[in-house]
User: Fold STM4011 family radical SAM protein from Actinomadura chokoriensis.
Amino acid sequence: MDHLTMLYRGPLASCDYDCPYCPFAKRRDTPAQLRTDRAALERFTEWVSTRDHPISVLFTPWGEGLVRSWYRQALTTLSHLPHVERVAIQTNLSHRVSWTSGADLTRLALWATYHPGQVPYERFLGKCRDLKARGVRFSVGIVGQPDHLDAARRLRADLPTGTYLWVNAAEGLTYSDAEAASWTEIDPLFPLSRRPHASRGLPCRTGETVVSVDGDGTVRRCHFVPSVLGNLYDGSFRAALAPRPCPLDTCDCHIGYVHLEPLALYDTFADGILERIPTLLTLP
Assistant:
């Protein structure tokens, strides 16, 4: 098997933030639910560790993973495996970042999101500066809510040199050209997020070289297409890996449309696909 990119999302759903614009319903995980999530993640980590082909992994938990020790351990363990080219996670950076000192920083990366109103600005910025000082690869993002614009401008000015600040269009929000221009001044790639991408029938890497995996090992082409390709642990998914067009009318999430071949975003992001760091931009 050639290189395989895996988006892993286990049952974890608890988060220490309560963002009003978050499209995912959060809950408080019980101790039993947390044990189930930990066991599922450790099983997945073990599976990856025993492969003999190149793999990249992006953790996309519903909740916040880095406040849980098993996610920090999984990232650290996977970063030291020679066949793992990149291991990354989406995070709000609420946890301390000192754990990264135990990881191989040539493979570890973080996709961090700033949520105004959930964390003091200076605390979040301090985490970013700490990551930069430690040599950790990371991008920073913000949701393009109208009341976030000033915070985004401030963050763009204060982030360490070379840090990409991406902007996600707020779900359900339509932007005027003037509004979009303001966000594009902050993130030159905001036009990619502004509107959903027509995707039905278009070639997409998901289901061929990119797959989504849940805590039970169920493999799908991506998080947004429910049809099952097989299971990770019995190997049944392998026979289903093949080029296939997108079956959905639109794709409006970066972790989905980045793999649409006509958008050529693998050229834009190159080896920063998982952590959302573009190569073809000159970063401030």
About this structure: The chain has a mean pLDDT of 94. Residues 153 and 186 are 7 Å apart (CA to CA).
